[in-house]
Amino acid sequence: MIASARRKWFALALLLGVQFMVVLDIAIVNVALPSIQTDLGFSQEDLQWVVSAYALLFGGFLLLGGRVADLLGRRRIFIAGLIVFTGASLLSGFAWSDTALIAARALQGLGAALITPAALSILTTTFAEGKERNAALGAWGAVGAFGAVAGVLLGGVLTDALSWEWIFYVNVPVGLLGLALTPVFLNESRDARVKSFDVPGAALVTGGLVALVYAITQANDYGWGSLETAGLFGGAIVLLAGFIAWEARTPEPLMPFSIFRLRTVVGANVAGLILGTALFAMFLVLTLYMQQVLGYSAMKTGVAYLAVAGTAIVWSGLAAQLVTKVGVKPVLVAGMSFLSIGLIYFTQVSTGGSYLGDLLPGFLLISIGMGFSFVPISIAALAGVKPAEAGLASGLINTSQQIGGALGIAVLSAVAASATEDSLASGDAVPAAMTDGFQAAFIGAAAIALVGVLVALLVVRREDLVDAPVEAVALPEPA
Q1: Domain residue limits at 84
Q2: pTM of the prediction?
Q3: pLDDT tens track for 227-273
Q4: Rounded CA separation 395/116 (Å)
Q5: How many domains does the structure of the chain reveal?
């Protein structure tokens, strides 16, 4: 059901505001980790769980959250996610121990896994496919690009100016405002054709994805060739294979595999996985380089990202306009190309580096790549998808990006650590050895981004990206 013109743009503003809060929270923690470690007494081994606990439940439950929104009601699940996320943010700020913060962060991840696919599917069923939806998805992509960088910026500012607790408290007023406005601007909708819920499918896919994300995040600790890592990946494969087998035979599957007949949707998810792999690792490595090699404070590190945050939203707006004029494919190819060039530039960072010489040009290239990648991927991931499966498609693209992010951090951190150890063994000083490790990680990230260029060229098709009417499957319910 397509809402009235004015109301649906208010709905878009609400969805974008809430999504900005979720995207912000993915990155905002990184800069504050040293302060959190000191105040709560985290060991170096356990500190990663402040990030990993969130990623584990977010990545593991996204697909389920998207499909549940289709079946049980998109607005209903959006509200449930807001309640969980806002409450968990408050608990994170009040955390009295390392265990309490890890538990609260896991709960935040669960709330985000309900919010994000529900919000994107509401957007999809509110705006008709074509120019109107492209504009809305362009704004959604801009929020993804801007929020990822703004999180690092605000993390540094809030940690230095106030305290690390405020990186969580800032979510509470946004969440409460979202809860107040949701019944006013968002209609309820769901897939009325499905009469039963696929419980076995839900258990298998969620268990498989959680096991997969856990295996990726713990592989560096256990060792990539260890029995523990092999067992976790093996368990994830078994569960996901069981899910595929079950879905092929059940009459009302949680995931109708017909969605994969759309080649552009497949290409968008592969590109989203690659984008997440490169960007998540890039922001982590850049933050470590600025703080551990250049000696930047948390505040200075955050401010350094202004060059990306201030320009990415401009490029995202331009990308949204270009998509309508020249199509998704050329914009995505350009975006992945700029991302690759920016990462290649970062391979020359040095121990005595300067902001103007070592960082700023790369930041400006990356900002173009982010804007020109997030927007077309958001549009292509939903191109030609039936409104009844909007939540499924939304959960799928977000799952791809989150698994890519977890994989990128794990793999490229291992690459950086290995290169650093080799440099130390050869007698290099610690700053030089760390810089060697960061350079190796950037080389790996650039290679991954170049694969994204090939995916955009060879897999994404123009034929799937055509204007199409939206089925009237949304069922309005009383507010």
Answers
A1: 5-182+254-458
A2: 0.75
A3: 888 888 888 888 888 888 887 777 767 666 776 777 777 888 888 88
A4: 8
A5: 2
